[in-house]
Write a structure and sequence with these properties.
alpha+beta, Anthranilate synthase, 21-stranded antiparallel sheet, two-stranded antiparallel sheet, 23 strands, 28% strand, globular
């Protein structure tokens, strides 16, 4: 059954620019990967979002992430994409009338969300998932220059847009609880006029019909044995001796009173023939995390709608850390600071967790960043509403364990999810404290722009909510190369060799996934898609 019916749609269309038209089907034989292949076909402008329930929080627990969260989101179609060209907002596709098509891209993003704002409870179509459409993609770390005075000295060698946010209109949401898939075709009043209501409804129904037909398509199975975990050949840019020298420089600045902590990073580059989907499959199998994502972005340069050649790229990641999540006016941060590698045995794992929680440096660093998160939320939340609801637990992932806390607050009157996002951007755990000076030091010391790394990925939805992750444990795949970046929090008594090793440990899960993905592509028979050399990864 299609919901709402035409009469209800006509009534709703009187005061709303966006109406989700939905159809629920049983799809208990499909996995999220199969749904993505059937419905998105690995096209540019599509995405896959999932979440694995949080890691074991007690010392001596069983280890990695235990279960997948209720929903998996397949982005089937994006009507338009907001990006940046020559430093100004630029749209690809068909943006809604009235939204900025030039100027500051952050202003354009805010204006788009405001123009398309729509209450969530539109019709009696049963329980809706937390995301039914909106702006989805990434804000790169380097957009911080529009929020803070950090300078502009780092070389922009990758030439990635500061942000790329897709206007997601058609989605399929797999409910793991009952095995159903909710097909969503958002009817958007692009011209903001009263005419064309019936046409918009029938167009949405036609898109639902097309998605339902695609669900019946058979996709070739692509079984492949997972190879032994191993690192690919890679190059650490500004790593090794150069990174250790950077740590020493940061320590001198800290001793001089410029900052308490700074998070310098280094970039790892590895050849990658695999598709973004295969890298995602490998990460999903080996490093499930609270934020799992695959984005396929089209050519940003005005060329053909393909991820081949200059401009097209994929972003694939498994981030453990929320930047900020907003639901019904309640904002949440999940700061992570303090790291140890996983132990080879349960006993060693427990010992490492105890060591981590007892380490004065790690505790001081974590407390500093929790306080920074409280201050960030305090800028946009009601006075007295910001609180730490969980403090210094240990969460385990495939290669590392972290100290984590949770900070919440109620958004103040007139404040929005966009305000919360910009108040917290970039994360203190990826910059340092005090944040403004830490950002400047990073700009002075890191030779190249960070790009996606250290920014955020996620969505701002039509209903006014948001869910964003810090872009860590993330690969940018373009033109046959995987770019992976990792950093370490440096304080006055940091050991440069240990901080360098921490970067390698953090990058290992994604580097190993790149190698595993190439094996999947080599051994799978009849796999969908093509090699990265032809799709711009």
């Amino acid at each position: 059954m299609t919901t709402p019916d035409l009469d209800t749609f006509r009534r709703l269309a009187k005061d709303r620019r966006v109406i989700p038209v939905t159809r629920r089907l049983l799809a208990d034989g499909d996995t999220p990967i199969a749904l993505y292949r059937k419905l998105a076909g690995e096209r540019p402008g599509t995405f896959l979002l999932e979440s694995a329930a949080g890691g074991t929080s007690h010392a001596g627990g069983s280890g990695g992430v235990q279960t997948w969260s209720r929903y998996s989101f397949v982005g089937v179609r994006s009507a338009a994409t907001l990006t940046v060209r020559d430093g100004r907002a630029h749209w690809l596709g068909d943006p809604p009338a009235g939204v900025p098509t030039d100027g500051d891209p952050l202003h354009a993003l805010r204006a788009t969300i405001e123009a398309l704002h729509t209450p969530r409870d539109l019709h009696a179509g049963g329980e809706l998932p937390p995301f039914t459409g909106g702006m989805v993609g990434y804000l790169g770390y380097d957009i911080v220059r529009r929020l803070e005075k950090v300078g502009d000295t780092a070389h922009d060698d990758l030439q990635l847009p500061e942000l790329t946010m897709q206007l997601a209109t058609d989605l399929a949401v797999l409910d793991h609880r009952d095995g159903t898939v909710l097909l969503i075709a958002n009817a958007i009043n692009h011209n903001d006029l009263e005419t064309g209501v019936d046409e918009a409804y029938h167009d949405a129904v036609d898109r639902l019909d097309a998605m339902a037909a695609d669900l019946t398509r058979a996709v070739p199975a692509a079984p492949a044995a997972l190879p032994p975990s191993a690192l690919p050949d890679f190059v650490a840019r500004s790593g090794g001796a150069a990174y250790r020298a950077t740590v020493e420089d940061v320590k001198e600045r800290i001793r001089a009173g410029e900052a308490f902590q700074v998070v310098p990073s280094q970039r790892f580059e590895a050849p990658c023939r695999a598709t973004g989907l295969d890298v995602y499959r490998a990460l999903r199998a080996t490093n499930p995390s609270p934020y799992m994502y695959l984005f396929r972005f089209a050519d940003q340069t005005g060329g053909p709608e393909t991820t081949g050649g200059a401009g097209g790229f994929d972003v694939v990641g498994s981030s453990p850390e929320a930047l900020v999540k907003v639901e019904d006016g309640q904002a949440m941060l999940h700061p992570i600071a303090g790291t140890r590698p996983r132990g080879a045995t349960p006993q060693r794992d427990a010992a490492l967790a105890e060591e981590l929680l007892a380490d004065p440096k790690e505790r001081a660093e974590h407390l500093m960043l929790v306080d920074l998160g409280r201050n960030d939320l305090g800028r946009v939340c009601e006075p007295g509403s910001v609180e730490v609801v969980d403090f210094m637990s240990v969460e385990r992932y495939s290669h590392v364990m972290h100290i984590v806390s949770t900070v919440t607050g109620r958004l103040g009157e007139g404040r929005t999810a966009f305000d919360a996002l910009t108040a917290c951007f970039p994360a203190g755990t990826l910059s340092g404290a005090p944040k403004p000076r830490a950002l400047q030091i990073i700009e002075e010391l890191e030779p190249t722009r960070r790009g996606v790394y250290g920014g955020c990925v996620g969505y701002l939805d039509f209903a006014g909510d948001a869910d964003t992750a810090i872009a860590i444990r993330t690969a940018v795949l373009r033109d046959g190369t995987a770019y992976i970046q990792a950093g370490a929090g440096v304080v006055a008594d940091s050991d440069p060799a240990a901080e360098d090793a921490e970067c390698h440990t953090k990058a290992a899960a994604v580097l190993r996934a790149v190698r595993t993905a190439e094996h999947l592509g080599d051994t799978a028979t009849g796999a969908a898609g093509t090699g990265a050399g032809s799709v711009g990864t």
